[in-house]
Write a structure and sequence with these properties.
By secondary structure, the protein is α/β, with parallel strands linked by helices. Helices cover about 35% and strands about 15% of the residues. A hairpin with a 2-residue loop joins strand 1 and strand 2.
Length: about 325
């Protein structure tokens, strides 16, 4: 069984001015002259988990982590209701990644991430394919309307009680419409109590879905500090209410732009949040991508999924 590498402390870090009043936190670790790899976190709005660097051999890779706009150590922080999200979109994040690449003097890099991170990886790679050497994704999403509707309505067929609680936390007139958009409005209410309650109700639903998975556990999303939780939910609702500013099916339609980029798509067969259909469709449209289905894994992974990630990253580390 493959083992993660010991944590390598950052050798450099900073706040990069990306415009619109935003500064994104970044850090590098590992071999300064090694193969460049960018870890792209999920959420959106979760912040980069520093443990991601343990998936990379620090002798082989130069590992770059960053926090997307409004979360983690990036500033300003979206937990502050006065912070506008007007300049926090998928297109802004793609531009931020390019600016970070240029700032660090990197020609091409491997992209690694999962969940929302996979959507951002695909959007970036389709915009800048010449800047991507390889891709490793665990938990494939493309943030299509059908995927958003599944997570916040469809999967409620399996969890009717928690889903009704999620729905009924909204004002009565909003319960039959777009639930994500309704939560987005509550999360930007001038009333702090309304914002906090909406954030907690949102996470309770996300937690219920994860806890229903075989290897899931309660409190997965709620186990955050108050500020981190508020930023996560506020940014998530903002992105999903706007369908990530992507045309319906755009990433699948434009998968031909990924031709020539080797990839491994790793997906749990028991993933309730993001059913296997999305990964399957992407692998069919992208001949250079190998799909690995992990039978016992859900959205939050498993030992077998970890092993598959480590194997893929190690294999691509041999590419120059």
């Amino acid at each position: 069984m493959a083992q993660p590498f010991p944590p390598a402390e950052p050798d450099a870090h900073g706040l990069l001015d990306v415009g619109d009043g935003h500064r994104i936190y970044w850090e590098t670790s590992g071999n300064p002259g090694g193969k460049a790899a960018l870890c792209v976190h999920g959420g959106p709005g979760s912040g980069g988990r520093r443990g991601s660097r343990t998936m990379f051999d620090p002798e082989v890779y130069r590992v770059v982590l960053f926090d997307q706009r409004g979360c983690g150590e990036s500033r300003p922080h979206a937990s502050d209701p006065a912070v506008s999200l007007a300049h926090n979109t998928t297109h802004h994040l793609i531009a931020d990644m390019e600016r970070l690449r240029e700032h660090l003097g990197i020609e091409r890099w491997l992209l690694y991430g999962g969940s929302w991170g996979s959507t951002l990886i695909l959007a970036y790679a389709e915009r800048h394919p010449e800047r991507v050497s390889e891709i490793v994704i665990s938990g494939v999403t493309m943030t299509r309307p059908e995927e958003i509707d599944w997570l916040y309505r469809g999967v409620g067929r399996l969890l009717p009680g928690p889903w009704e609680t999620f729905r009924d936390a909204l004002p009565v007139p909003d319960r039959g419409g777009n639930l994500v958009a309704a939560y987005d409005r509550l999360l930007n209410s001038p009333d702090e109590a309304v914002r906090v309650r909406a954030a907690r109700d949102w996470c309770a639903w996300e937690d219920a879905v994860i806890a229903h998975e075989v290897l899931g556990h309660p409190g997965y999303y709620s186990d955050k500090t108050d500020d981190a939780l508020m930023a996560f939910v506020r940014i998530s609702a903002h992105y999903f209410a706007n369908e990530a500013w992507l045309e319906d099916g755009q990433l699948l339609r434009d998968a031909h732009r990924l031709a020539g980029i080797p990839a491994v798509l790793i997906h749990g067969r028991l993933d309730l949040s993001s059913p296997l259909k999305t990964a399957w469709e992407l692998s069919k449209a992208w001949p250079d991508a190998e799909l690995k289905v992990i039978d016992e894994s859900g959205h939050t992974g498993s030992p077998a999924m970890r092993d598959a990630i480590l194997e893929a990253i190690a294999r691509f580390g041999k590419n120059t």
